[in-house]
Amino acid sequence: MSTQEPPIFSAGELAEKIAALVNRYEAGQAQQLEHAASLEFRMRHAVIARKQWKEVEQDLPALLVEVRDAGWEPKQIARLFDLTESYVYRKLREHDAQQ
Asked: How many Cα atoms are found within 13 Å in the side-chain-facing hemisphere of 6?
């Protein structure tokens, strides 16, 4: 003789619980996808910004000298380019030493 356990949930209740789990799963997947897309966007942006900086960095010392020769003070140049004054002075000295 076999005895069956009574069902814990009715079929409708079980369907509701499964639907709720599927919704939670889908929401989690969407959130992970959004985060991944955001991370990928930020990574691509950082790569582009780094490449652009490398291009500018090569020409920056000559530009700093040109701005100085146009009458700007190193302190003004530093503020303009968002650099430290010591960096500006160092690049100007290096350029002057090469001349």
From this structure: 2
